[in-house]
Specification:
Blueprint (H helix, E strand, L loop, with lengths): L1 H47 L5 H32 L7 E4 H18 L3 E6 L6 E4 L1 H17 L5 E8 L6 E10 L33 H11 L3 E7 L3 E11 L20 E5 L3 H13 L3 E5 L2 H10 L4 E4 L8 H9 L9 E5 L4 H10 L3 E4 L4 H13 L1
Helix pairs in contact: 1-2, 1-6, 2-5, 3-4, 3-10, 4-5, 7-8
Length: about 375
């Protein structure tokens, strides 16, 4: 009896250790792939803003689209592993909803336009600007839907619309509809598209790449957030996906800001702390073109010294750095007399719940994952600097 108990106990310990090692492996894989991928995507974006001939533009755009595909597969695989292990936790933090939705749509606009598709985005004016929810997981749930709409639509348009269910009692249901004029799905195949590792095409004749995880992850995330996803489709006409998730309202939730109100940023001073040279070059180029004054530090120690010797309006902080990591550097900067209320934003390749929790506890004002999109970065900075 005791031997059986001991054997079972040892098995439990081994299982826990295997799970721990698996989580460490995923965290390392996440960081080590996202960091160079962030540099590839950032540099190709900057290259596309220079003067290129037609052939050069085609080459760079193709490289960018390949990087996008790699990122989508990485996101799906890591999200699926996190959900399956039970490690994923849905957080409840304040974020700007219209900005988050617009940034997501802009990520797919270039892909749509490259195929000659119209990508329309309509955000209802009644939608609250600031909400309580999980901005990262909301994006991860919506991204596969938009990605598939672009992938499976050969001609016509894609309509992305967001509204409320009209009920406000301390919260509301966000309702997002994505409609395309694509190939459509057979009625008997509608539920199969939400199964893990399942694609409607298989074998050597497959015309689209991927693991078949995107929509499976999207539905699981929507369910974890207390919502769901439904689909209607007609072969040869197109498909319409409806995602809804409950979101909360902070004490002061205003209407959507106009585009004019989002313009006119000041020449604020930004300190960016990152040990990766490519990351520093990409982010500094983005911020300088947006007319911010940017100083870069090569690690935590230099970041602390720069903050001590000059004043910055906002600090962008990488988390995983040698010697002094981003959390320790942030704690040191917070102790400086002028930095008690200065916004500090985490910019990291690690999306894990453990890191997000550490950021919240350390008092970070925001959390941006690598590879960061220029629009998302600028909108986050603009919001924090004017608050």
């Amino acid at each position: 009896m005791s031997a059986e108990v001991t054997q079972g106990s040892n098995a439990g310990v081994e299982s826990t250790e295997i799970t721990r090692i698996g989580h460490q492996f995923l965290a390392s894989l996440n960081h080590d792939i996202r960091t160079p991928l962030s540099g590839i995507m950032g540099m190709t974006d900057l290259l596309l803003e220079t003067e290129l001939d037609k052939d050069q533009q085609e080459y760079v755009q193709t490289a960018r689209l390949c990087a996008d595909q790699l990122l989508e597969m990485l996101n799906a695989a890591l999200e699926y592993a996190s959900i399956s292990s039970g490690a994923l936790r849905i957080e409840r933090a304040e974020f700007h909803l219209p900005e988050a939705l617009r940034a997501l749509v802009e990520e797919y606009r270039a892909k749509a336009e490259a195929k000659g598709l119209q990508l329309q985005c309509r955000i209802d004016r009644s939608l609250p600007s600031h909400v309580l929810g999980d901005a990262v997981q909301l994006r991860q749930a919506l991204a596969p839907i938009l990605s598939n709409a672009v992938k499976f639509t050969a001609r016509g348009k894609i309509e992305f619309s967001a509204a409320t269910d009209g009920k406000f009692r301390g919260g509301f249901n966000l309702v997002v509809n994505t409609t395309d004029t694509g190939s459509g799905i057979l009625p008997e195949k509608l539920e199969a598209i939400f199964e893990s590792f399942r694609q409607l095409e298989s074998g050597l004749s497959r015309t689209h790449q991927g693991f078949g995880l995107g929509l499976a992850v999207a539905r699981k995330l929507a369910n974890l957030m207390g919502g769901g996803i439904t689909v209607e489709s007609h072969v040869g006409i197109g498909s319409s996906f409806r995602l809804w998730v409950p979101l909360g309202l902070p004490h002061e939730a205003g209407p959507v800001e106009s585009d004019a109100e989002q313009e006119g940023r000041e020449r604020s001073r930004i300190l960016f702390v990152d040990d990766n040279d490519v990351a520093r070059r990409v982010v500094s180029h983005i911020l300088q073109r947006a007319e911010y004054h940017v100083d870069c530090a090569e690690g935590g120690a230099e970041g602390i010294e720069r903050a001590r010797s000059g004043h910055y309006d906002l600090v962008l902080m990488d988390l995983q750095m040698p010697e002094i990591d981003g959390l320790a550097a942030t704690e040191a900067i917070r102790r400086l007399p002028a930095y008690g209320g200065v916004p500090i934003v985490a910019l990291t390749a690690n999306y894990s719940e453990e890191f997000r929790k550490m950021c919240r506890e350390a008092g970070f004002h925001g959390f941006l994952g690598k590879p960061v999109q220029a629009k998302e970065l600028l909108e986050t900075l603009h919001r924090l600097l004017k608050s």
